[in-house]
Amino acid sequence: MNLGKQSQTEILKALKEALGNLPLGDGQSTIVSDIHLQPVLGTGELYVFDDDDNELAHTVVEEWTDCVPEDFYAMVEQQLRPLLEEIDKSDCALLKPYSFVLVDDEHETVSELLLVDDDTMLLNDSLLKGLDEELDAFLKQLLEE
Predict the structure, then answer these.
(1) According to the model, what pLDDT value does residue 6 have?
(2) Rounded-to-10 torsion of CA 81, 39, 48, 129
(3) CB-based contact 87:11 (threshold 8 Å)
(4) The pTM is what?
(5) What span, in angstroms and rounded, lies between the C-alpha atoms of 49 and 58?
(6) pLDDT > 90? residue 46
(7) Cβ atoms of residues 81 and 15 within 8 Å
(8) Which residues span the domain enclosing 67?
(9) Total domains present in the chain
(10) In whole angstroms, what is the distance from residue 16 CA to residue 24 CA?
């Protein structure tokens, strides 16, 4: 299921609002290291929290109200990743490194959507798929020599 333009706009607006609502610490950066995104199955709500579970923003995503529970978080993850890339993080007041994390109803981590350090690195399955096997083969080759 694809997100409509209206839903994409609302999600981006909520994310920008959340980053703007972060409390500033010393200097120009905050002490927050993770932004938690919590989608709610059935209601279609998306809550954005800081490390201390303080709500920074929320919105409703109409397309999420009729989702099947089994693939809900996987679908949301695929929809949020490209939207996170669109946010201008250069003016973000967060102290690096920080990350955007998808969480469930109990605030348990489902997936790390984006990690931002001096340079940005997306964490996704296609990037990491097969990495263990490649590293094992490389180590085996080194040990045999």
Answers:
(1) 93
(2) -30
(3) no
(4) 0.75
(5) 9
(6) yes
(7) no
(8) 5-144
(9) 1
(10) 15
Cα separation of 92 and 37, whole Å?
17
143 Ramachandran zone, left/alpha/beta (phi>0; psi -120 to 50): alpha
d(CA 98, CA 48): 14
Higher pLDDT, 34 or 133: 34
- Three-state secondary structure of the chain: CCCCHHHHHHHHHHHHHHHHCCCCCCCCCECCCEEEEEECCCCCEEEEECCCCCEEEEEECHHHCCCCHHHHHHHHHHHHHHHHHHCCCCCCCECCCEEEEEECCCCCEEEEEEEECCCEEECCHHHHCCHHHHHHHHHHHHHHC
Q: How far apart are CA 19 and CA 56, in angstroms?
A: 8
Give the pLDDT confidence score for residue 117 in this predicted structure.
76
In the chain, what's the furthest Cα-to-Cα distance? Answer: 58
